[in-house]
Design goal:
Elements: E1 9-19, E2 31-39, E3 44-51, E4 62-69, E5 72-78, E6 82-85, E7 91-94, E8 101-108, E9 113-120, E10 123-127, E11 131-135, E12 138-146
Antiparallel strand pairs: 1-2, 1-12, 2-3, 3-4, 4-5, 5-8, 6-7, 8-9, 9-12, 10-11
Amino acid sequence: MISLFRKREVEIWDGSYMYDEHPVYSRDYEVPFAIIFSRNFFGNITGKVHDDVSKGGMKDEGKIKGNISKGGIRFIKRMPKFEGRDDLGNPLQLNIPHPLLHYNGTYNQSQNQYEGIWEIDPAIFHIKGRGSFKTGKSRGRWKMRRRN
């Protein structure tokens, strides 16, 4: 008999993301990341993500939650602080949560990796003493390969 409550296996994945459009980085510039998550019997995943800050990634540890099933993967990346660029391309970090990053992909057997599209929905931020600002929709490509 298979137990539905068996111990979760910890998985470590190395990957990178690219932007479709960015004020500083070219379309092929890759920002590396590492994800550590556990997966249950139903394919639900929860874990942590770390971007490579030296390559332009976000500084803080993020959290992921999603699902892997039938060769596909979907997860949401939550970062604790907003990081982005202003209209002139200057770095911007605010002490408010970053908009949710939605990752969707499929498993590429020939490359032995997941790959897909990430998106950030537009958001409006209200900052006391500084007014409001709106972010546009962002999207790009991503890929990751299992380390362990």
